[in-house]
Amino acid sequence: MRMVDLIEKKRDGEALSREEIRFIIDGYVQGGIPDYQMSAWAMAVYFRGMTLEETAELTLMMAQSGDQLDLSILGRRFVDKHSTGGVGDKTTLLLGPMVAACGVPVAKMSGRGLGHTGGTIDKLSSVPGFKVELTQEEFLAQVKKIGLSVIAQTGNLVPADKKLYALRDVTATVSSIPLIASSVMSKKIAAGAQGIVLDVKYGSGAFMKTVEEARVLARTMVDIGNKLGRQTIAVLSNMSQPLGRAVGNSLEILEVADALQGKGPDDLMEVSLELGAWMLVAGEVVADVETGKERLSQSLESGAAWYRFLAFLTEQGGDAQAVAERRLRVSPWNLPILAQDTGYVQPYDAHKIGILAMTLGAGRVTKESSIDLGAGVVLAKKAGEWVEAGEPILQLYSSDKNMLAEGLQLAQNLVSVGSEAPELPPLIEEVIQ
User: Fold this and answer.
1) What is the pTM of this model?
2) Which structural domain, as residue segments, surrounds residue 102?
């Protein structure tokens, strides 16, 4: 079997067999297939696509390329959740304690961010003392003890995806649906998930800009998961506006703390309750979504989710008291953006809000960039809310005066106030099972 023949076969639109896909993945991980041939194959996939059978086989081969977790120690059905990312998306941190408090264990490996803000691991790193790296034994023992742990992705989990993703990033093949779907799903399969809930976002602040693109990706991932024996559910959610009010690492942790104590923004709570309810359904704790939402709401009202969150922080070495007392470090230089007129705040461009947060220091431009964990943006007024002239609309935070000045220039062009309340699209578009 020769790689050049498989490149040619895919270039001509033919389907590859399981053995051929295994040859490609094994050869690439082991170094027998060079980057230039893998790049050619990825571009052939970009233009020619893959059948569901091919994509499912690619997912499985990638999942089997490294370590795989055995979660049978938990003694419960384990459900994983994945978001395709967005501006102000801190749902993992909110859902973990809520779902765990309802009886479904959450054992999650998350990544660091590259772009407008940090990833889940960066956000947790803003809690003093919090350990993002645990051994596999420590990780599973903690989940068994309190039902919740979130750690950085292990070094040998799906190495094929790490290599292929880095290659796609520099060969203009990132947006290939089969390659995106297999990348996401291979990590969920390797992490031992029996049920998978996907938050597939669309809009200006998401990778998929239209609902049609998001629907195709969601359908592909659901079909892959179900074909590989994992119950998979996808929720299509709108990311044309930032989710919640806080965009930035420690700022988002503080917003999660508020939300777990019943003071969360409506949009963040709506999306979190929807996703969490489906996690409870997939975890076979409840029979339907409405019952799931009731159980999650009870976990908030009783304080069970909040105390589970504090226990989670403490177990991983974090200063839970600092979070409870809102003593997380926030960047010292801050500046309000004031409304020039009285009226209704018009919709923000979520992507531009994300760029603003990154400009202030909250995100990475490259993998080597350092993050200012206390930097970011708080939306004092969200789209559709009434504001008086002279009131703050945005609050900017940075540790660098030059970054703050640059952010000011960007922010002034993001704010608009009108005489009529804008019509905002629904947050949840549809659910695909």
Assistant:
1) 0.92
2) 72-324
